[in-house]
Fold this protein.
Amino acid sequence: MNIEFLMRVVPAVFTSVIVCFISIPVIIKIASVKQLLDEPDQNRKIHKEVVPTLGGIGIFAAFIISFSIWGNAASLESYPFFVAGLFMLFLAGIKDDILSLSPNKKLLIQLLAASELVFGGGVVLTNYGGVLGIYEVSWIVGALITVLSFVTLVNAHNLIDGIDGLAGGIGIVISSILGIWFWHTGFIALSVLAFSLSGALIGFLIFNIHPAKIFMGDTGSMAVGYIIAYLVIQFLISNNSLVNSSWHIENASVFAISLLIIPIVDTLRVVALRIGAGKSPFVADRNHTHHQLLDVGMSPDIASFSLWMGNFALVSMGYFLNEINPNILLCLVLIGGFSILPITKFIFATYLKYNRKLAYYSYLRSRAESDSDYDKLKDEMRKLVGRKSKSEDEVGKLESS
């Protein structure tokens, strides 16, 4: 760790954490007063009480302020176009969180934001490293694929924002790993940008861990997804220029997929299930990975943590096996991604088998209609267990006499 790291990255993280930590309580108060709240339902939403939205405002403010101070934005030629696209999604997210925005309009704005960065900022990926036999493509084909990738990743990250702590935690995993890589390869501005996002999400996560005091909303999920997409594309472009570096990753495209494996697999899974059931792929349901974990009695914080660890494990696989055939590695990463849900459920079920108390509480959590209802059920269970123990003691005394 050199002095420049201490003077730029550490202050960037500290600044974004503090700005987000200070701003979120203010946003919570304003949202509560103005009734900008997310109402619970009896289907997809796991929260049972009203929760303020617009947490993305705090994330956005913390990220922009931190990078503006410590990031040397002038060294990034694409930065003006990046910020322009980010503002477009930020404003669209606010509109959707407060008044609602139709899916078609939201998609149009996402396409415009991505196109502005790709065609205006020149952020275009044309080398795909041999994945599926694709190496170099023309600039226009690369530009179209890059725009599609941006829009897909923005929506994929939005889809995993379904339980407390999940989207923020996955964002921290991705941005921190990329921040470390950018720093060691000399792309300092991109490193500070990545760590500014990490800090903002850490500050937000303090208020978003279950039970969440605030949600990031579309304001946050689309903005975070866009920043992550920008970082990943910049990573792939930068990696192509470091062929002789010790930090060059041979199968960078597959490594990028391993970074994004949770939102990618979740999106592919729910779309396939919806189409298979004869439904529109855009109709919301409870087939998401995180919903499946909740349905077996796992608490939101444990479910989120499990998916964070699954993400990190597959990133490690993508990195340490990066010199094997790219298509074999891609298959391994995708198999690993689709295996996270059944493996996590199996581990949890095995643990419950040997922990009867946790099994009771997991069952109660799956039956409770609210956090307060869950607490009442726990109290009733404790009373029943206490009565049973007392009765057994009395029977024992009678038998001994």
Q: What stands out?
A: Residues 391-401 have pLDDT under 50 and may be disordered. The CA atoms of residues 169 and 365 lie 23 Å apart.
